[in-house]
Recover the amino acids of this structure.
């Protein structure tokens, strides 16, 4: 594979939600609410705050990168040696909010760590492209 | 998440274990002694980690004289090629839960 090391790929999920951004923001940033839809956590909406998301299969290490109330929230998402960044974007619409989640990461240079595993990673990236094609 | 992912995720979630696996991927077959010299943990600990990796199918051992050589089994990572579609599915289901929660929340 010959992608530049800085190139990243991402997973995007978007949805129209019939609630205002302020309400969605609460669900994205209050720990007891986050736990209800995502995972157990010690989240705080403060830049640089480090927190964990704990699932029954293991834990995700995170750090808050961006907090723009009711607009944008992003944090790092590190699990299994793959670093990525999750970014939430809230855009008000006439009927509620356009909510977009992008998990960006999977840097091409991370595969260096698994250089021997070329076969698996080539298929990994091919699969990622299919996911992206479906997500658009 | 299917069991096979579960085992791989759990096995590679440990940083020491993951580092051992990555070294075998990068540098090829190595003895327990060589791995221990740079692992920062004791030989019994390294052996134990290698045992867990072996059980997950991620490494194979080969005995030669008194030495045991370990090598990475790259094919074992194949289930992870599905990781991103798993992730997309994960987020779709979390969006569903988020919407359910929003319906239940006070304004």
């Amino acid at each position: 594979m010959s992608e530049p090391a800085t190139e990243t790929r991402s997973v995007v999920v978007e949805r129209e939600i019939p609630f205002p951004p302020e309400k969605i923001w609460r669900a994205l940033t209050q720990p007891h609410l986050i736990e209800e839809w995502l995972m157990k956590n010690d989240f705080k909406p403060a830049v640089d705050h480090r927190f964990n998301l704990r699932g029954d299969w293991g834990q995700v290490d995170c750090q808050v990168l961006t907090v723009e109330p009711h607009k944008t929230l992003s944090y790092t998402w590190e699990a299994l040696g793959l670093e990525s960044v999750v970014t939430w974007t809230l855009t008000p619409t006439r009927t509620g909010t356009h909510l977009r989640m992008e998990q960006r990461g999977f840097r091409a240079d991370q595969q260096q760590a698994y250089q021997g595993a070329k076969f698996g990673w080539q298929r990994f990236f091919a699969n990622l492209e299919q996911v992206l094609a479906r997500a658009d | 998440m299917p069991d096979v992912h579960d085992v791989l995720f759990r096995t590679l979630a440990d940083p020491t274990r993951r580092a051992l696996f990555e070294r075998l991927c990068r540098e090829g077959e190595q003895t327990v002694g060589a791995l221990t010299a740079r692992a920062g943990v004791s030989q019994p600990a390294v052996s134990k980690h290698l045992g867990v990796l072996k059980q997950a199918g991620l490494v194979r051992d080969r005995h030669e004289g008194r030495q045991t050589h370990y090598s990475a089994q790259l094919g074992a990572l194949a289930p992870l090629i599905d990781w991103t579609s798993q992730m997309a599915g994960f987020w779709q289901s979390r969006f569903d839960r988020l919407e359910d929660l929003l319906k239940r929340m006070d304004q």
Q: What stands out?
A: The CA atoms of residues 11 and 92 of chain B lie 26 Å apart. Helices of chain B lie at 3-13, 15-27, 32-39, 43-55, 83-104. Chain B touches chain A at residues 1, 6, 9-10, 12-13, 18, 22, 24-26, 28, 72, 74-75, 77-78, 80-85, 87-88, 91-92, 94-95, 97-102, 105, 107 (CB under 8 Å). Residues 83-104 of chain B form the longest helix (22 residues).
